Amino acid sequence: MKKYIIGILSVIILLPLLINFIGNKMVFDSEGEYGEWLSFWGSYLGGVMSGALTLIGVSIGLKNEQRKNLTMRYLQNAKDINGFEDYLDETLEIVRLYKVNNDIQELLDYSLEKCESYIDKFYQIDLEFPKHLEEYKTELFGFRITLDYLESEDLLTRSYSISYHEKHFDSFEKITKDLKNEHKKIQKELL
User: Fold this and answer.
1) Which of these, 172, 85, 90, 152, lies nearest to 122 by C-alpha position?
2) 175 vs 137: CA distance, rounded Å
């Protein structure tokens, strides 16, 4: 912030000196009067500065309007996404249990499906935390697709599915944590 203030003060102090120097130089090399050149430079720089300030104002206004619209969409869908973080924790716990007890496959499948529906609701709101959301959706898809093959007759397919769950659990846990942090950050920004 101090750099901007120093820069603006420098421009305010040095600009008149520069205009005076250039104006004096042009008076000797042209047919115009010194006052005419000052008038030209004043009009020219005034136009540039007012255009820049208008552009900044419009840009700030558009950003505020976009944020307001995003907040409204978030609040309108708050009922549908309420409990998202709790469901992430619950799904992670079910995945943990599944490593120990394969009999809860239906429960895990339902939980993963529910998380996917939450993700779809976030996409409808158009929130901008797609990196972790996409990673999470990919992991969910991997867990769900391999669930179907855990009871496979083919030993290779079954062992791949079991190995997938064991290898990807840590990344699933990390992505879940990242996604929760990202969601909290968005809530703080919007509300």
Assistant:
1) 85
2) 10
Q: Degrees (nearest 5) of the Cα angle 148, 154, 155?
A: 100
pLDDT at 150: 67
Q: Sign of the CA dihedral 105, 107, 111, 117? A: positive
CA–CA separation, 73 vs 110, rounded Å?
A: 27
Residue 61 has what pLDDT?
93
**Half-sphere exposure (CA, 13 Å, Cβ side) for 144?**
15
pTM of the model: 0.52
Q: What is the structure's pLDDT at 176?
A: 77
Q: What's CA 119's distance to the chain center, in Å?
A: 15
Which residue numbers in the chain have pLDDT < 50?
Answer: none
| Two structure tokens written together for 180 | 């929760």
Res 162: pLDDT:
73
Query: What is the DSSP secondary-structure string of 99-146?
Result: HH-GGGHHHHHHHHHHHHHHHHHHHHHT-S-HHHHHHHHHHHHHHHHH
Angle between helices 105-125 and 34-76 (to 10 degrees): 150
